[in-house]
Amino acid sequence: MARTAPVNMRSLVLRAMAVRDVPAVGRIDLRAFGSDGGWPESAFQAELRENRLARYFVVEESPGSPLGYIGCWVIADAVHIVTIGVDPDAQRRGLGALLVMRALELALEAGVPGVTLECRASNVSAQALYGKHGFQIVGRHRRYYADKEDALIMTRIDDDPAAARTRLQGQRHRHHRAYGAQVTQVGG
Length: 188
Ligand SMILES: CC(C)(COP(=O)(O)OP(=O)(O)OC[C@H]1O[C@@H](n2cnc3c(N)ncnc32)[C@H](O)[C@@H]1OP(=O)(O)O)[C@@H](O)C(=O)NCCC(=O)NCCS
Description:
alpha+beta; 8 strands; 35% helix
């Protein structure tokens, strides 16, 4: 399997996922989740082509070579994170955090107060990522996944958009201090 070039984290682009990104995103998904857990490329294609609620983003260092992705649905009063993955060779360098912050910003753009997701009860690394970004465990779906593992429901609610914007700015500032990356956000 092709390895990802090392990430220097100096200059990153965060942009909307396009259909042409799907093969690369599918490879990351397979590497991140393993063959049992991830999505087929057809699922990403259907999301991009057919789901009007879906907003998907990638983060990349070299144009056209995503290192991570996030998929969200903008539903009635919340942004729901439906999938997120970072190439294993690029993990623990702040890319997952950038993607989660993009979902938080999407909630501000959409004018909804909440961001919510489900996470395997055993996935402590993802729970740490979400916890660091203000998500709290608010419930549990018993035997939610095909292998009967429980899902934890995690939510962050921001009732005051101005306070949420300030909070997000603080998180971005801390991210820049920690990782030193210049992040360019392209498009919506
Ligand atoms: C979860 C995932 C997206 C995180 O991506 P990432 O780019 O490695 O995350 P970041 O580098 O931005 O990490 C941010 C913080 O999250 C937490 N975190 C991330 N990975 C962690 C790990 N393996 N162990 C403990 N904490 C972890 C830490 O608090 C970390 O901050 P720190 O590095 O300063 O300690 C990535 O591990 C992944 O793709 N996992 C497989 C797919 C998956 O589980 N998706 C989530 C489904 S709910």
